[in-house]
Design a protein that fits this description.
This protein is an alpha/beta fold and 354 residues long. It has nine helices and 15 strands. The strands form two sheets. Strands 1-15-14-13-2-3-6-7-8-9-12-11-10 form a 13-stranded mixed β-sheet. The model is unreliable at 10-15 (pLDDT under 50). The structure holds S-adenosylmethionine and iron/sulfur cluster (SF4).
C-alpha cells in the first residue's frame, strides 16, 4: 500500500499550543487511534482477501507512545479518543491503556475514551474495560443470521459477538451502538429485524453507507445502499415513521445523523445513518486519525500522512506539534468518494479503523 508521506519542513521555533483549527475553521476535538492493523476477522468490505504485508512489530506505536500522544492532543483541545484497529481488543495491555487515557485531564474534565470493536473478545473484556473508565462502545455487526455473519466476516462467530454485547450491557457500558454496513442484496431485507433486535436491548443501531476504500478494490457497485433507502426500508418493515432527531444522549462526536421512531411499540427510539456517499458531512469534520504505526491522517478518504512515530521517537520536543499542525494545514475540504467506487484512497479501512 503506498501512502503519500507529507514533506514536513524543519520545525520553526514559533509559539506552540492552542486548539487545532484547520483552514476551513474546523476545530479538531476528536482523535481516532488505531491500536493494531491486524484483525481476527476479514470483513469483505474492509480487508482484501490477498495476504496483507505487515511491517516489523517495532513499527507499531507502543502503548506508552500512544499515551504520550493522547496527552499532547488533550493539551491542544482534543476531548475524546476512539480506540480502533484493525481489532483493538487484540492489543495486549488494552485495559491499562484505557485506564491511563481516561485519567488525562482536558478542559472539560478528563479524556473521554470510547472504542469500536467487532465484539469477538468482548465477553471477557467488557467488565474490566468499564472499570478502567471506557465511556461507551460501538460494536460492528452486519447480520443476525449466523451463516451470513460468518460469510461477511469470513470467519466470525455471531454467538460470541452477541455474548459480548450482553456482557457490555451487564457491565453498564452505555450507550452501546451497533455499526451495520448496509449492503443491497446482502442484509437489506434484515435491516428492520436488526433495528428491532437492537432497540429491544437498548442498543442504538447505526447504518453505514459502504465506502470505496482500497482504490475501490473492495467496493462492489450495486451493493451500496443509500441512507435514504435504508431509512425507508426500516420504516416500512417496522410500520413506523422516522423523524430527524438531534441525537441528544446517543450522538458521539461522529458524522452520524439521528432519526427517531414515531408510532408503534418503539416510539421515541433512535437510529443513526452515516452517509459519506450521499449526505456529505465533511464541513463539520472534527477529527484526525492515527494509524497503528503512528501515521497521522487528516482524512479517512485521502492518502496523505504525517509521521508522528519518528516525532515521538525523536529528541526534539517541538517535533510532534510541528508534524500535527503541518498535517492539519493540509486537511482537505471534502472527501473524493464517487458513487462508481472511484475517488477513494489506496489504504484499506482495516489500516486506519474507520
Ligand atoms: N474491528 C473493529 C470493528 O470492526 O468494529 C474496528 C475497526 S473497523 C475498520 C471500524 C468500522 O469500519 C466498522 O464498523 C466497519 O463496519 C467499518 N467499515 C469497514 N470497512 C468499511 C467500508 N468499506 N465502508 C464503510 N464502513 C466500513
Ligand atoms: Fe476487522 Fe473490523 Fe475490518 Fe471487520 S471491519 S475486518 S472486524 S477491522
Amino acid at each position: 500500500m503506498s501512502l503519500v508521506q507529507l514533506r514536513v519542513p524543519p520545525a520553526d521555533p514559533g509559539p506552540g499550543g492552542g486548539p487545532l483549527v484547520d483552514s476551513q475553521a474546523r476545530t479538531v476535538r476528536y482523535l481516532r487511534v488505531s491500536l493494531t492493523d491486524r484483525c481476527n476477522y476479514r470483513c469483505t468490505y474492509c480487508m482484501p482477501q490477498r495476504p496483507i504485508e505487515y511491517g516489523p512489530r517495532s513499527a507499531v506505536l507502543s502503548l506508552e507512545e500512544v499515551g504520550r500522544l493522547c496527552e499532547a492532543f488533550a493539551q491542544w483541545g482534543v476531548e475524546r479518543v476512539r480506540l480502533t484497529g484493525g481489532e483493538p481488543t487484540l492489543r495486549r495491555g488494552l485495559v491499562d491503556l484505557v485506564r491511563r487515557l481516561s485519567a488525562i485531564p482536558t478542559a472539560q474534565g478528563t479524556l473521554e475514551v470510547v472504542m469500536t470493536t467487532n465484539g469477538e473478545r468482548l465477553e471477557a473484556l467488557a467488565e474490566p474495560l468499564a472499570r478502567a473508565g471506557l465511556r461507551s462502545l460501538t460494536v460492528s455487526l452486519d447480520s443476525l443470521d449466523p451463516a451470513r455473519f460468518t460469510q461477511i466476516t469470513r470467519r466470525g462467530d455471531l454467538s460470541r459477538v452477541t455474548a459480548g454485547l450482553d456482557a457490555a450491557r451487564a457491565a453498564g457500558l452505555a450507550p452501546i451502538k451497533l455499526n451495520v454496513v448496509a449492503l443491497d442484496g446482502f442484509n437489506d431485507e434484515e435491516l428492520p429485524q436488526i433495528v428491532r433486535w437492537a432497540w429491544s436491548r437498548d442498543i442504538v443501531p447505526r447504518f453505514i453507507e459502504l465506502m470505496p476504500m482500497a482504490s475501490g478494490e473492495l467496493f462492489v457497485p450495486g451493493e451500496l445502499m443509500l441512507a435514504a433507502q435504508i431509512r425507508a426500508r426500516v420504516a416500512e418493515g417496522l410500520g413506523i415513521a422516522l423523524q430527524s432527531d438531534d441525537g441528544a444522549g446517543v450522538a458521539g462526536a461522529g458524522p452520524a445523523t439521528y432519526w427517531r421512531a414515531v408510532g408503534g411499540a418503539f416510539d421515541g427510539r433512535r437510529l443513526g445513518t452515516i452517509a459519506a456517499m450521499t449526505e456529505n458531512f465533511c464541513q463539520s469534520c472534527n477529527r484526525l486519525r492515527v494509524s497503528a504505526t503512528g501515521q497521522l491522517h487528516a482524512c479517512l478518504a485521502r492518502d496523505d500522512t504525517g509521521d508522528l512515530r519518528s516525532a515521538l521517537r525523536s529528541k526534539d520536543p517541538d517535533r510532534l506539534e510541528h508534524v500535527v499542525r503541518t498535517v492539519l494545514g493540509t486537511k482537505r475540504d471534502a472527501h473524493g468518494f464517487n458513487m462508481d467506487g472511484s475517488g477513494g484512497p489506496t489504504k484499506a479501512m482495516v489500516s486506519i479503523g474507520g
